[in-house]
Task: inverse folding
């Protein structure tokens, strides 16, 4: 049995108010290519398929296209669970009918004890899925006394173990935060104050655990308890992460290997740090000029419309930080220094606006004007 484990597609997500639909379509097409070339028996998606519980029409259309290609054109079954971003009630629409077409949406907690059984080349595998849930839902639905996500998870796993056969190969899909795993900035906390963590030990009985929620690909404690990570970088904190999907091989004895299949984004997510003129100079030979950028300017003097200038070379600058200017401002707190600062700032402004220094005459005029203005200001106090 060979399958692709992926999660956290977040279809419809915006990044600093820019729609990522084209970027998402671009990497989802690569997943389809992997499914073809690696001859996989199934695809599992461990939650956060959409970014919102009520996704946009365009987001629904994209998911519809991708699932149709995988299930109908390639004839590969898909097993998916909702994550904390998905609205389970909407995502599971028509799920009972869709089973016939090879699309298995495990969207209700009652379904946790009804695995999707898929026959692969080497063996048959039972895929169990736990749709994302919060402790309150589990408490009221099963009339049990539990305090947190770990309790809820242990309880649901105990229900699964009642029906699970150790004679078959078993895979679990879950959307949760394993204690000690590495988080990124683009995940929405499941609950405040660390009560969202679950322990990995109850997972050990499965032959493979396909996890979603954390956006960095990683395994936790055991090689077969794994997060595939998101398909794209959804925050600047992820600039050095490698995004992709996980190719999993199992045989009749259980876990064999995993392989990381990288996804190449349409535009990279990068942080560039430096002085404005250097950044603009380097931009001329930068092949990634369409990347999504956070630019951190280290200039210590005032700058005229740096965003406008940067966007001429880098159209997708999404955020600008000027730590250098804040530092130099902080050093000029006293009033006299601030006055001196005004002249300096004007000189910088002039140089950037006209491309040359003030002439001595102009410098004198502006300096006199600032002195005059300050005098009036003092008189007004
Ligand atoms: Mn997510």
Result:
């Amino acid at each position: 049995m060979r399958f692709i484990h992926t999660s956290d597609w977040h279809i419809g997500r915006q990044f600093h108010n820019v729609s990522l639909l084209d970027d998402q379509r671009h990497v989802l097409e690569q997943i389809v290519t992997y499914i073809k070339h690696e001859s996989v028996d199934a695809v599992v998606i461990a939650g956060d398929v959409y970014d919102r519980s009520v996704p946009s029409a365009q987001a629904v259309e994209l998911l519809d296209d991708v699932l149709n290609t995988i299930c109908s054109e390639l004839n590969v079954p898909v097993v998916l669970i909702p994550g904390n971003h998905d609205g389970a009630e909407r995502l599971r629409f028509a799920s009972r009918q869709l089973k016939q077409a090879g699309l298995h949406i495990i969207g209700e907690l009652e379904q946790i004890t009804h695995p999707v059984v898929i026959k692969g080349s080497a063996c048959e595998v039972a895929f169990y899925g736990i749709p994302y849930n919060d402790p309150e839902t589990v408490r009221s639905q099963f009339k049990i006394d539990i305090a947190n996500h770990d309790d809820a998870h242990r309880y649901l796993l105990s229900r699964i173990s009642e029906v699970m056969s150790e004679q078959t190969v078993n895979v679990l899909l879950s959307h949760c935060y394993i204690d000690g795993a590495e988080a990124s900035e683009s995940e929405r906390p499941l609950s405040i104050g660390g009560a969202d963590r679950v322990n990995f030990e109850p997972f050990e009985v499965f032959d493979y655990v396909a996890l979603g929620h954390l956006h960095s690909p990683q395994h936790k404690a055991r090689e077969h308890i794994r997060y595939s990570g998101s398909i794209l970088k959804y925050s600047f904190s992820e600039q050095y992460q490698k995004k992709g999907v996980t190719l999993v091989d199992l045989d009749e004895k259980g876990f064999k290997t995993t392989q990381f299949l990288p996804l190449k984004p349409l535009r990279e997510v990068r942080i560039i740090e430096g002085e404005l003129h250097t950044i603009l100079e380097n931009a001329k030979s930068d092949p990634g000029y369409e990347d999504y950028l956070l630019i951190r300017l280290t200039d210590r003097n005032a700058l005229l419309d740096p965003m406008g200038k940067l966007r001429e070379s880098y159209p997708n600058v999404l955020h600008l930080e000027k730590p250098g200017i804040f530092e130099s401002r902080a050093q000029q707190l006293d009033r006299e220094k601030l006055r001196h600062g005004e002249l300096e700032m004007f000189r910088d402004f002039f140089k950037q606006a006209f491309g040359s220094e003030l002439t001595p005459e102009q410098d004198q005029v502006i300096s006199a004007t600032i002195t005059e203005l300050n005098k009036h200001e003092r008189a007004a106090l």
About this structure: Residues 360-380 form the longest helix (21 residues). Residues 269-380 form one domain. The mean pLDDT is 92. The chain is about 35% helix and 25% strand.
